Each structure stands twice: as C-alpha cells, then as structure tokens.
Amino acid sequence: MAKIPAVVVSGFLGSGKTTFILRSLLPRLKGRKISVVVNDFGEVNYDKIRLYQEGLEVYGIEGNCFCCELGGEFLNTLASIKRQGVEFLVVETSGVSDPSPIYYSLESSGFSVELIMGVFALDIEEGLLKHPLLQAQMDASHCFVLTKADLLPEREVLRKLKPFLEWQKPTFLAKEGYVEEDIESLFGQVQEKPRSGGKHQSFESYTLRLKGFYSKLEVEEFFRKLPRNIYRAKGIIHCLESPLPLSLNYSFGNLIWERLEVEEEPFLVFIGDKIDHKLFEAFPKPQRLSYIHEKQCFPLCDFDAREGVGYIKGNLAGELETAERLLEELEEEDFLFVSGEALSFKGFSDIKKFCEDLKNSHFKRLVLWKVPSGVVSYLLEHLPPDKLVYHLSKHYLLPKAHLSLRVDTKEKEEVLLSLISKSFVV
C-alpha cells in the first residue's frame, strides 16, 4: 500500500505556525483530501479551534507535546486518519516539541514525510536562538520559514537572517504568514533524515478559564506587566469592545487581537518557564455587557457618530425627518420594543441566543432601544432581511439598519418614549 504524504510544521512558541498553515500551506494543497493534526502544549487546543473554523478535518492532541508521553495517542490518531482515506496530512507540532520523533512515528505508521518545515519568528530574542530546543528544531528542519519579516526594517531583517543562513538550508520569508516562493517544490525532494532522539524542555503551561466580558484595555495592561519568563499566551476572550469573541495571541511581548465567531468557552493558555501562579490573581475582573457599554462596544459594520442626523434605509437624513419617519412606520404595524436597559450578556452565547429569539419573533419591526450598537451590528449581519431594525442609540448611527437615530440627550429620550409608549411590547 502506498504511503500517505505528510508534512511537519515545527517551530518555537509564537512563531506563527498556524497562520503559515492557513495562509501559505493549505491553499497550495487545495483539491486534496487533507487532515490536520495539531498538538498544543496546554489544557485547551487553541490552534485546533482556529483551523476548525476553516472547515478542515482537524485532530487535536492537548496537554503535552508529541515527543513525550502522548506517543500512544498520536499513533492512535494516525491509525484513525489512515482509515479515512486521507490524501495528505499536515502535522503542526507544539512550540515545545522536537520534530524528530514525530518524523519517525509518521514513517513507521504508513506516512511518507515530504518535508519538515521549521517556522521561526525573525523578531525572536537573540538569546533564545541558542536554546537547546530551538537548536534541535532547526537541526531537524529541512527548510526554514521566517515569519514577521514585515514587522522589521530591511537592515534588521538582513541581520536577523544571518544565524538561520548559517545552517545552509532553503530559507523563505513570510509576510503575514504568506510565502510567495514555490515552497511546495521541495516536497519529497529532501532525503535527509533528522537525528533520532528528541529533546524536550521543562516548560510549564497555565490555563485561565474565563467568564463574562473583560476590558480590552485592562487585559493589555496585564500583559504589559508580564515577566519575561512567560514566552507565550493564546486563547479566546470576550471583551467589552467587541460583540464577537476575540482571539488573543501573545508572543515575547507582542500582543495581537483578531475577531472570531466561535462559541467555545473562553480561555487563555500561558506557556513559560517556572510560572508563578500568583501572577494571575491580578488578571482583570469580568463584567456583563450591557447598555452602559454602548460607547465602548464598537460596531462590526460601518457606523457614524455625527450629531443632528439619522439614516433611513441607508440614506443620510435630518434628525427630525428620521424621527418623524420612525413614528409614521410604527403606526402602520405592530412592533417589538426591546430596551437595552433590561438586557445583559454574560458571553457571546447570550448574544447568539438574543439573535435567535428575534429571528423567531412574529414581529417584523424591531425597535432596539439602548441595545449596544456593537450587538445591533451583529444582529444586522444575522437577522433575515424581512426583519426591519429600528436602531435607537446614544452614541452611534448604523446606516445598515432600516432606520437609525441617535437619542443622545435626556430630553430626546423622554419625548421619543412618550410618543411610542402606547404601542410597544417589552
């Protein structure tokens, strides 16, 4: 039976392996039946979640690294993949794994390792380049993919390249995870086998299980104060500034945020050396997202913060004209009035449930009063087109709504509520 081709993507903590797989490797394998095995050093497999979002067949191995006591689970996973009729396998190792044992496990399990790619960040601290684990990862790699080149000046890139070029291996620069060169031409061309054995260092991980919404600014302040022995952190967190969950990627002092529409329970995994668990007592306290966070919770779609204007079916109109149109249309048909003052969201799942409740409502016209504009923007993306959203907000206008009006003073609130109060349903 012919062996199944496989590639191993290795590299140190925070090097951008998952981003490289998503943006450079998988597009080159389009058309084949692919499986991905992801090992994450920690209690929750964040990289598996990111890849699963792309609709891939992903197998996750959590809690430790391939080159330690998880060999049995890894081999069982490989056997399961073979039974699925997979045409190509991508293996992403944890940042604390030596890829050598993985190579030999694959070769002995009916797979042919076409290439071991070592993904390393050019902005890594130079002292870490002599770390025994990094040296083992470099030694086992058939080629190097150097990420974050776009974050450094050209002169600095040339200087940082030098220790990698000394290995005399094919080297590619990746910008935002994308490699322009024909990297797949190396598949199956490299015959050199990595040294057997494998090194594993005594890294530690600590997982924070999160509840509620957090201030993004407070979270960033917490990360600014982290000691240098915490190299990496990643996970999913709900922040007051976004109706959608945010992925958090921290690597050697650099923090990157990205919106993700996932329902996974929020968490953060920290990886480092001799982690003091008392550090996490200073992590910010959670809150519920409510109408008081209207200004803080930014919309997902286009918005306008001007005073004295409104929007009717996407067209700019005067404030008075918009208010008159609102009252005229609400007299034509029954409507549902939802007050943000009666709502609070513990997490993204609450926002999704709120959206489903509105979808299932028999009312066509939905008057959303003081519901955070960020939440309303999510609703506008997911409600069916026959639902007409009347967005009444203190801070933002949403042109995508059927009608949007700023109600930014107490006087406006009182007048508008008195005019529509006879018909609304809470």
TrEMBL record:
GO terms for molecular function: hydrolase activity; nucleotide binding. Residues 5-162 form the CobW/HypB/UreG nucleotide-binding domain. Zinc chaperone that directly transfers zinc cofactor to target proteins, thereby activating them. Zinc is transferred from the CXCC motif in the GTPase domain to the zinc binding site in target proteins in a process requiring GTP hydrolysis. Keywords: Chaperone, Hydrolase, Nucleotide-binding. GO terms for cellular component: cytoplasm. The keyword Hydrolase applies. PANTHER family: COBW DOMAIN-CONTAINING PROTEIN, COBW-RELATED. Belongs to the SIMIBI class G3E GTPase family. ZNG1 subfamily. It catalyses: GTP + H2O = GDP + phosphate + H(+). Residues 203-281 form the CobW C-terminal domain. InterPro entries: CobW-likC_sf (IPR036627), CobW-like_C (IPR011629), CobW/HypB/UreG_nucleotide-bd (IPR003495), P-loop_NTPase (IPR027417), Zinc-reg_GTPase_activator (IPR051316). This is GTP-binding protein.
